[in-house]
Amino acid sequence: MKIVADENIPLLHNFFGDVGDIETYPGRALTNECVMGADILLVRSVTQVNETLLAGSNVKFVGTCTIGTDHIDTAYLQSKGITFSSAPGCNATSVVEYVISTLSVLSEVRQIDLSDITVGVVGCGNVGSRVVSTLKRLGLKVLANDPLVDQTEMVSFEEILKCDIISLHTPLTKEGDYPTYHLFDENTLAKLTEQQVLINTGRGAVIDGEALKQKLKKQPRFTAVLDVWETEPNVDIELAGLVTIGTPHIAGYSLDGKVKGTEMIYQALCRHLGLPLRHQVAQFIPSPPLSRMHFTSEAEQAWSMHTAIRTVYDVRHDHYNLMNTLQGTEQQRVQAFDQLRKQYRPRREFSTIKVFLKNTDSAMHSMFKALGFNVKSA
């Protein structure tokens, strides 16, 4: 059995090595010729899986080790009887922690008082709903909008546009009753004031990049945080120079989230083939480089929170890494963007870190639990 896979799938050989012979390619370089002899195709989000890629092949199973499916022509797969599986929710925690790190940084660089703001979340699927619940547990006021979810706790899109911080977590759709392509176009962006913050960790083209660039030129104090870009991997240099934080599509790139995606597709393939589950993440994932932090009763709560968040993950590291690649030719920039993702460091999630609290009050304990840390009494 032959498996063709994106070379960036973590623990690929650990999980699938005894299922079949593995042949790897860069995700953007996968072609019809590459998959012609394959029985199984494993991808991440950068490969467009459609008739052009699969025509004439023997592929019977397609798995994407990612949460999104807008790069997959599911209708075509269904018409050809090809089994498909994705990994919904695998990187939701990673994206939540990206948003939390961003809010922590903005509280400093933009002097935003997190206790006095309202966060609006657009899109309440696996990721958006997790963002909402986490921020609420931290005591922030959060409003949510998603026309495809039970409307009991939803607000209108117009109400979201009045929030201090707006965080986007929608898939990219161009058809249907609620298309998200250029949801934030020139007219929508014009309704946002300089004091507001727009964060996009969903899909780049949910925001009209050209319209956002013009807004930032006219209103340089407007805060835009982009992890996804309409033209990626060819990032608009001018737009990148205007955003407050810009990163190379890595919000969901924690090691824990990525390997969970691999494990979920491994399990789906085993079910498809009728094979026993021989492997699980715990067999392969290394110990975190930072394993514990200690705080005493002398530590002020807000300082402790921001210190812990930024110690584990400071989004500015990824911002500066991307900004440092925006030189050279277009081809060099495109290659650099993909290299940042391919060689991304093993970022670990908060839950892998033990936080020891000595003689601290219950509020401190609750805060760290809400963030997702593994809290222990010292």
UniProtKB/TrEMBL annotation:
Enzyme nomenclature, EC number: 1.1.1.290
Positions annotated as active site in the UniProt record: R203, E232, H249
Domain D-isomer specific 2-hydroxyacid dehydrogenase NAD-binding stretches: 109-251
NAD as UniProt keyword: yes
Catalytic activity: 4-phospho-D-erythronate + NAD(+) = (R)-3-hydroxy-2-oxo-4-phosphooxybutanoate + NADH + H(+)
GO MF term list: 4-phosphoerythronate dehydrogenase activity
Keyword NADP among record annotations: no
Subunit structure: Homodimer.
HAMAP family: PdxB
Family of the protein in this entry: Belongs to the D-isomer specific 2-hydroxyacid dehydrogenase family. PdxB subfamily.
Protein function: Catalyzes the oxidation of erythronate-4-phosphate to 3-hydroxy-2-oxo-4-phosphonooxybutanoate.
Name of the protein: Erythronate-4-phosphate dehydrogenase
The organism of origin for this protein: Alkalimarinus alittae
